Amino acid sequence: MGMGNGSADLPFDHPCTKSEKYPARITIAVTYYGGEMAELLKMQGDAVNQQILENAMSGLKEGQRSPMREKLGGGEIVYAAYESECQPETIDTGKKTQYPPTPHVKLKGVALTANVRLEVDLEGTISFDLAKAAVSEVFENLRKADFEKAR
């Protein structure tokens, strides 16, 4: 059995977040079940992932946003996405400028293969579409990964 995790900052260009090139963060945790431990993963099945998603839904409900849940490329995500009024980070020059609303997302995802359980968290000032695309790519790469070769 092996465990590992990592995180990365994600870029998002928006006129209301000019001071932050990387306003969102993705964190990935992987648990590999090798050899006989893979049987433990099979016995657990999807129950652990479902509990993780239920806990995430409860946590997201504490805010003012309604959490959503959906299947995504071999995994499943729960998320809350909303927009806030733009707070321009520039000095008011007296010009009336229309700024788009600032997007925010908080997302938790899980995926499972025959011998790997993966959890992903993504949070920050980023569009939901971009957040979803990033998590979808993580799920796709999990399906391609061969953890047996790495042993």
What does this structure look like?
With 151 residues, the chain is α+β, with helices and mostly antiparallel strands. The chain has one domain (2-12, 32-87, 100-144). It has helices at 37-44, 47-61, 128-144; strands at residues 2-10, 24-32, 68-72, 75-84, 102-112, 116-124. It has a six-stranded antiparallel beta sheet. It starts with a strand and ends in a 7-residue tail after the last helix. The mean pLDDT is 87.
Mean pLDDT: 87
Structural Rg: 18 Å
Shape: elongated
Total of helices: 3
Strand count, sense and barrel status of the largest sheet are: 6 strands, antiparallel
Written as H for each helix and E for each strand, in order along the chain, the element string is EEHHEEEEH
Q: What oligomeric state best describes the polypeptide chains here?
A: single chain
**Spatial strand sequence of the major β-sheet:** 1-2-6-5-4-3
Distance between the termini: 10 Å
Beta content: 35-45%
**Into which percent range does the helicity of residues fall?**
25-40%
How many individual domains?
1
Total DSSP E strands: 6
Low-confidence stretches: none
Derived from helix and strand composition plus strand pairing, the structural class reads alpha+beta
Topology:
Blueprint: E1 2-10, E2 24-32, H1 37-44, H2 47-61, E3 68-72, E4 75-84, E5 102-112, E6 116-124, H3 128-144
Short description:
This protein has helices at 37-44, 47-61, 128-144, and strands spanning 2-10, 24-32, 68-72, 75-84, 102-112, 116-124. The chain is α+β, with helices and mostly antiparallel strands. It has one domain.
